[in-house]
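Bench notes, afternoon.
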Amino acid sequence: MRPVDIEADVKEMERRKRVEAIMNSQLFREELERVVGDSIRESGADGISALLSDVMNIKSGTAPSTSCVVPINDIRGIDSMVYAKGEKLLRCKLAAVYRLIDLHGWTQGIYNHVTTRVSQDTEHFLLNPFGMMYNEVTASSLIKVNMQGDIVEEGTTNFGVNQAGFMLHSAIHQARPDIKCVVHLHTPSIVAVSTMKCGLLPLSQESCLIGDVSYHSYSGIVIDPDERQSIAKDLGPSNKVMFLRNHGVVCCGGTIEEAFHITYHTVLACDTQLKMMPFGLDNLVLIDDEVREKLLKLGSEGEVE
């Protein structure tokens, strides 16, 4: 075993080699030119001055003078070479969904997950590190796991994954290969609707745009094989929204974009229904099945206002 001081020297040499490789990288120079160019176009010379001031303040250990937002795409230069084709974009999209959920106020601290399937062949999935807030999630921090929730690539943090939480997603991904992304939420409105015997009613356009809805009596123990089969059976072969009774909802999509689209309208539909419920079910007009099917078809074609 090497002495501690020699080990530290070796690590420092490796770090310097990595920094030198990045600095000499053509990809790094192109990325730096792009960032500087964008800053000039957006803010002119003042933007560059503020950017340089922030860098100098960070080096000196003082707080930046301007507000700082952690970038979603933090995969730069040669770092992008370690990912398979298309994975960098997939990571950026998934991290962006975490940020959008945070902006809409649908988060519950570090809990819940949004998962996406990386590869149909290897059955690998990306999800958030267990311990990061949604507004902290970046493309490189996402963790890659297999169907059992075992870590394949740990990302750029020291956090692990919430395996128990991932099992719900795993059950859906395993049962429905057509689903690429699963969003799990339990906002107050969603939980309220999940407790109602009537479930989500066709009261608004948003409730029609998500298609048919499934329901599952959630026990919280997804590790059990029978529970996993029950989840798959209740979701069915084509539905993309399933309420977990007294718990929340899972919204699914063939793409990350579709999953967020369905999630957004599910939240709106639940919020709308709760505002209508005080008037009593007898006073509410339900949208008939023919109109629901028409709205769903128009929505899938992007023709709904």
